[in-house]
Amino acid sequence: MTLTKKNKPWTLEDSAYAWDQHVMGRTHKFIARRLSRTEKAIEINLSKTRVNMKLYSAAAATPVRKPRKTAIKKVRFSITELMAAAICGAALGVLITYSIL
Q1: Which of 16, 28, 39, 83 is 20 to 30 A from 99 (CA-CA)?
Q2: Is residue 47 domain-resident?
Q3: What is the total count of domains within the chain?
Q4: Cα dihedral sign for 36, 42, 48, 53?
Q5: For residues 47, 50, 54 and 60, what is the CA-based torsion angle, rounded to 10 degrees?
Q6: What is the pLDDT of residues 6-62, one digit of tens each?
Q7: Would residue 96 count as lying in a domain?
Q8: Domain-located, residue 18
Q9: At what angle do helices 28-35 and 12-23 cross, to 10 degrees?
Q10: Looking at the domain assignment, is residue 17 inside a domain?
Q11: What's the CA angle centered on 66, arms 41 and 40, to 5 degrees?
């Protein structure tokens, strides 16, 4: 019994087409029909392409999205609050230490 490979290898053009269609918002089913492949094959290729795009973003054809900037709030503590936290932390540490022994 001879085993033959039933799936066809991905060409660079097919992979690029699938990625471009994915970026445009096409479904895996649509891309699969156009390339005569299964939806799972499209899903696997897109996940591999996405990893390659992140690793080699300088050579990528499409730009990689920049992470969103989050608002950072400045938190200020008074000296009395810091001293109270230090004293309570030390007291809690002593309490835990002696309760274990």
Answers
A1: 83
A2: yes
A3: 1
A4: positive
A5: 150
A6: 678 888 888 888 888 888 888 999 999 999 899 999 999 888 877 565 554 444 455
A7: no
A8: yes
A9: 150
A10: yes
A11: 10
